[in-house]
Amino acid sequence: LLLVERNQPQFDRLENLYIDHNSIVTLKLSTHHTLKNLTLSHNDWDCNSLRALFRTLTQPAVDDADQHCKIDYHLEHGLCCKESDKPYLDRLLQYIAMTSVVEKQRKKESCSAINAIHSVQSLVHFIKQQGDVPLQGNAQLEAEVNELRAEVQKLTNEQIQQEQLLQGLHAEIDTNLRRYYLPKDELARPSDSLNKLFTHLKERH
After folding, report:
1. Which of 8, 17, 96, 152 is most buried by its number of CB atoms within 10 A?
2. Helix intervals (H) in 38-138
3. Do the record's keywords include Ribonucleoprotein (predicted)?
4. Which has the closest alpha carbon to 68: 97, 37, 41?
5. By three-state DSSP, how is residue 99 classified?
6. Within the chain, where are the H helices?
7. Architecture of the domain whose range is 111-204
8. Cα–Cα dist 143/124, whole Å
9. 201: Cβ contacts below 8 Å, ≥ 6 apart
10. Tell me, what's the pLDDT at 79?
11. Domains of the chain by residue range
């Protein structure tokens, strides 16, 4: 659970709401709510949203609190939150970075250029699938998605440049293999062909 902004009619009729231990960034309640018990700890609060939320709450209604906060988070009204101008984009980039670290640890190898390209391609494909679907009711989220689309386009252009550079390097390796009359294994990786070329040159000298 990440975003809770369109549940005000349902929440206004509740007396007890337990939403601790989620990943909630924003929550909106009306001033007419009837909540008597509310738990909010262990979430991923945006500080601005949290301040706005507490303007509609009375302190006794909140039944829990955080004790320790992660790096870049601090306590506000007894709950850990993070200051961010673009909370949705910030959490998305944070999630991507965290996923990348987990993948590196799981595979026990550094992230290769090919993996990075595939990640960008997947993200581009997802954005294209979404098309121009309007994100009604949340101008901030729409602005952040547009910014993300621009960033994806930038990464795509960089990917194309890297692929062109890579193709040029592969062609250069093939040229030197022919130059020194070395057989090319079509199933070998370019790095293996390059090592073969280096070995041959070392033996010549």
Report:
1. 17
2. 47-54, 87-107, 113-130
3. no
4. 41
5. helix
6. 8-11, 47-54, 87-107, 113-130, 139-179, 190-204
7. Up-down Bundle (1.20)
8. 17
9. 180
10. 95
11. 5-89, 111-204
Tell me the pLDDT tens digit for each residue of 109-144: 444 555 555 665 565 565 555 555 454 456 776 777
Distance (Å, whole) CA 15 – CA 122 = 43
The Cα 171–Cα 184 span in angstroms is 12
pLDDT tens digits for range 27-38: 888 888 888 889
Residues 6+ apart with CB under 8 A from 75: 66, 69, 81
CA 127 to chain centre: 14
Sign of the CA dihedral with 39 first, then 45, 48, and 49 last: negative
Distance, in Å, from the CA atom of 13 to the CA atom of 170, rounded to the nearest integer, reads 66
CA atoms within 13 A on the CB side of 100: 15
Which run of H or E residues covers position 4?
strand 3-4
pLDDT category at 83 given cuts 50, 70, 90 is very high
Chain segment 136-194, per-residue pLDDT in tens = 456 776 777 778 778 888 888 888 888 888 888 888 888 888 888 888 888 888 888 88
Q: How far does Cα 4 stand from its chain's mean position?
A: 19
